[in-house]
């Protein structure tokens, strides 16, 4: 005589709730018989189905696919189902690896920013640095953020703002020499396939913390240091936002780096 299990007995046997069993019934995965008193009665066939359902759910296979699979259950359909799910999992692994690389890059950006020497000028040699740029001037920070957002459109899959220390602006060199240190010509974001290049050469660098409005203090220091060391400003004059409002709401945490391309004056 065939043995049947009531819903409570099956729930205890599999350590699952009766609500889950009712949900599987609502989804047409398990269709128990009904006793005269209305009680659900689960057969050995239902138990086999429950085993399959539980195993497939552990693989995160959606209910709809499980329903279709149970309706056309064969060796061939089993292999097809698993191969399809394996392809999905491999794609997810690739996405997770990309996310992992992105997070590592952001951590490295923060570490670089907070290891930057502050309030002191120093020379650094840079190769050509490709970047995407938008040649649109601005004078206040509120105008910059929409431009930075536009920069992401060059490569939405790989360009990011939060934690990217390769974002900056070009300050008009002649304007800066005349004391207008926040007259910007364009914004840029470093990118290997960028359509524009920041020229290679020696750059006079100066980092500072706090509000970027302090350009009025630090940009003149660049020119003074360059003159003292017989260096001729050639431009561009760059302002990198190493860490800003996207990283911290505390202005004291913000790090800005100025870079001015210079050449030694003729003797």
Helix and strand composition category: alpha+beta
**Strand arrangement, major sheet:** 4-9-11-10-6-7-5-8
Distance between the termini: 108 Å
The main pleated sheet reads as: 8 strands, antiparallel
Q: DSSP strand (E) fraction? A: 15-25%
The unreliable regions are: none
- String of helices and strands: EHHEEHHHEEHEHEEEHEE
Quaternary state, please?
Answer: single chain
Mean of all residue-level pLDDT scores: 91
**Helical proportion?**
40-55%
Q: What is the general shape?
A: rod-shaped
Number of helices: 8
What gyration radius follows from the Cα positions, in whole Å? Answer: 31 Å
How many β-strands, per DSSP?
11
Structure description:
- The model has no long low-confidence stretch (mean pLDDT 91).
- The chain is α+β, with helices and mostly antiparallel strands and 267 residues long.
- Strand 2 and strand 3 (40-42) form a beta hairpin.
- It has helices at residues 7-14, 18-26, 44-58, 63-71, 75-114, 141-151, 173-177, 215-228, and strands spanning 5-6, 33-34, 40-42, 121-126, 129-134, 167-171, 184-190, 196-198, 201-209, 231-243, 255-264.
């Amino acid at each position: 005589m065939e043995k049947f299990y009531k819903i409570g007995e099956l729930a205890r046997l599999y350590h699952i709730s009766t609500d889950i069993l009712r949900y599987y019934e609502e989804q047409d995965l398990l269709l128990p018989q009904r006793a005269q008193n209305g009680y659900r009665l689960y057969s050995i066939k239902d138990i086999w189905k429950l085993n399959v359902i539980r195993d497939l759910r552990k693989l995160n296979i959606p209910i709809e696919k499980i329903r279709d699979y149970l309706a056309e259950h064969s060796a061939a359909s089993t292999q097809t189902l698993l191969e399809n799910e394996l392809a999905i999992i491999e794609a997810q692994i690739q996405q997770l690896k990309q996310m992992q690389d992105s997070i590592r890059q952001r951590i490295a950006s923060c570490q670089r920013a907070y290891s930057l020497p502050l309030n002191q000028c120093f020379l650094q040699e840079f190769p050509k640095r490709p970047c995407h740029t938008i040649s649109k001037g601005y004078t206040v920070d509120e105008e910059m953020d929409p431009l930075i957002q536009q920069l992401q459109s060059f490569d939405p899959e790989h360009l990011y703002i939060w934690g990217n220390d390769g974002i900056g602006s070009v300050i008009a060199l002649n304007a800066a020499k005349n004391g207008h240190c926040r007259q910007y010509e364009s914004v840029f974001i470093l990118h290997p396939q960028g359509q524009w290049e920041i020229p290679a050469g020696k750059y006079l660098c100066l980092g500072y913390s706090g509000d970027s409005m302090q350009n009025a203090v630090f940009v003149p220091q660049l020119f003074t240091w360059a003159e003292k060391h017989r260096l001729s400003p050639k431009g561009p004059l760059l302002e990198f936002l190493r860490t800003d409002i996207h990283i911290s709401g505390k202005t004291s945490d913000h790090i800005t780096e100025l870079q001015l391309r210079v050449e030694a004056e003729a003797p």
